[in-house]
Amino acid sequence: MGRISFSGKLLTGTAILAFAALMSSCEKNDIDEDGYVNVKVVNASPDSIAKSFTLANTVLVSGGLNFTESSNYINTNAGSRLVAEFKNEGSTSVYESAELLLVRTLSYTVYLIGEGGDAKIKYFQDDLSSPGSGKASVNFVHLSEGAPSNIKIKNGNGDNLVENITRYTQSTYKDFAPGTLSLQISNTALNSSVGTFDLPDLVAGKIYTIYIIGSSSSNISVHEVVHN
Known about the structure:
Blueprint: H1 2-25, E1 30-43, E2 51-55, E3 58-65, E4 74-88, E5 94-102, E6 107-113, E7 120-125, E8 136-142, E9 150-155, E10 160-166, E11 174-176, E12 179-187, E13 193-202, E14 207-213, E15 221-226
Parallel strand pairs: 1-6, 8-14
Antiparallel strand pairs: 1-4, 2-3, 2-4, 4-5, 6-7, 8-11, 9-10, 9-12, 12-13, 14-15
């Protein structure tokens, strides 16, 4: 009986340790104390007032981030299940939150998107490699609920820039000549037009993300983030 009782206690102790390890791995704000990332924050929510941004209980943007505005890159700790929170400027109430996985040494851009109760947080790893000589580096991010879930992008001459990009994903980076970049966005499956847009004044040596937003087909717009 003593042997059976001892084995039962040992098994129970092992189970408790395994459960504790599992719970620890699932804890929010698992901060990498020795690892750091660079984070840029963008307010891409059309109907929102100025926002602050907190990550893992640390205020990275204290307020004043208006629609289409972006912060500079902010150096902060890497980690998993890091709680990101947007709040209205001057308020302690959370407007929208999400959990982020940020891997040390990398750079990310975090977007507040959507409107009102449909607000969401999306984030993407950035490629800050220098563009080719005399060129600007550009990628595209599809953040529009109003556009088709799959879109393609051509330039003003009808040449394909992106064959297909799915909602909430980003394209690869491509080099473009400086100046105005004209875009034709259409439904990948039906080839019907979503809209045409001009992005003026691309500068050689700069790295851009062009993000597409809009909650309906009537209010789709494109905006840019400059990464360097």
